[in-house]
């Protein structure tokens, strides 16, 4: 029986081996950079002759890395807030609205996600050069907001569709104003969707490279841009240290998301 | 759902107000119109207006063997990456769908971790792993499989390995859902009727999973066509792909006309493939890229 794990017979071990190998393949680069970041070989010899924390010291001694990380964080937080707010209102229109062209609008809101990022990057670069937003904080936020919004709209719309609107109506019948009902009944009920929207939006902006490469100026660059420009010069182990910290950060975010999901199920 | 079927008094009043419900979408709509539609349309216009009005840029683009080779490279790499991702991804998605949940959640966590790890970090790891003195070449030489280090980076081999790595989760995750939704009784019926395991696989399981395979494959193919970072870092300057060419027209050559034309070609191909996908599978699958 092909869909019963215990009755796969000899095939089971072949398939399990393939799955294990693919899992290792997926894990390999991530474990590898972590190991390299502690190795003392400038030329990334592996296994390293000895272990050191030198690359982490170099990383934190260079103010440009910290500055880039700080810029990334500020942009990502601004994008997260705006994306969740705009996404919430857009989702309300998409799930509650009753107007012509609603489905077209839904498809339109998702388009930035399917468009090749490089097209948007080049287009925005041209546009921002004309209106003077290139290399500005605001420019970064607007560009990343366009990319983050589809994730936010999808997460929040899904949550709103799963929420029984008659509960909100009941609150209104019991004397709550429509806005009061939305804030105190609907919002708490869809908070998992809002949270997912926030995490996705944050990561979209925090990890975004392509638009950022075009948008960056010598005085304003995000962490991915800093990694990109360093990578183009040489493969210094400092990048391994920076990457390892980014991986840890991703794991922390994933754990947080899993915890929140668990907490909501209770 | 319930908003439509609700017929209580409150539901009715809400529906009446709902006709103006589109106003809530206004801020997001304005954002996308100003910072998405206007720039993209503007770029495409430049492709037919600069340096002079006409289709000159497109003629140059399709008339030169250099550019045609870049198109060909892009299509070939994308096709190979898609094929590899599907062939490698299918057994994993299958196992993920039926494995005991304790194991499945471990594989699942690895998939998510790999997917959400910073793209540059992953690409950097492959640059180091694949270089001439890298671990992979050294291991192969120590095992006596090769005498000379293989050229695995700064060519299309490196791009293919790096891209397959990135695309695998995008095949596995949706495919797992499709396989999970297949009723095991169908396979039981097939084997009761005398089908061998192999026949069950090729005549029942794979055909039933085909919509998922096709959806995943189309998505990976279209994402690969427009990929910028990994080809640029693992491919080296001699093996450019389409996205890199667009960036180069604009950044190094400051040729907006050609950049716009190349972007338009990529855009049209992308939208056509998504059109096919919508035709074949409906709108439901569009969101799965998330």
TrEMBL record, chain A:
Gene Ontology process terms (BP): transmembrane transport
InterPro entries linked: MetI-like, MetI-like_sf
Membrane topology annotation: Multi-pass membrane protein
Chief location: membrane
UniProt subcellular location: Cell inner membrane; Cell membrane
PROSITE patterns: ABC_TM1
Record-annotated membrane-spanning stretches: 12-38, 75-95, 107-129, 135-156, 194-215, 235-260
The ABC transmembrane type-1 domain, residue ranges: 69-257
GO (cellular component) term, any one: plasma membrane
UniProtKB keywords: Cell inner membrane, Cell membrane, Membrane, Transmembrane, Transmembrane helix, Transport
Annotated family: Belongs to the binding-protein-dependent transport system permease family.
Protein name: ABC transporter permease
The organism's taxonomic lineage, starting at the top: Bacteria, Pseudomonadati, Pseudomonadota, Alphaproteobacteria, Hyphomicrobiales
TrEMBL record, chain B:
Signal peptide: none
Keyword list, A-Z: Cell membrane, Membrane, Transmembrane, Transmembrane helix, Transport
InterPro entries named in the record: MetI-like, MetI-like_sf
Primary location class: membrane
A single cellular component GO annotation: plasma membrane
Residues passing through the membrane, by range: 22-49, 70-97, 103-129, 150-172, 208-233, 253-276
Membrane topology per record: Multi-pass membrane protein
Subcellular location: Cell membrane
Record flagged with keyword Ubl conjugation: no
CDD domains: TM_PBP2
Location of the ABC transmembrane type-1 domain: 71-277
Example GO biological process: transmembrane transport
Record has Transmembrane as a keyword: yes
Similarity field: Belongs to the binding-protein-dependent transport system permease family. CysTW subfamily.
Protein name, as recorded: ABC transporter permease
Organism encoding this protein: Mesorhizobium zhangyense
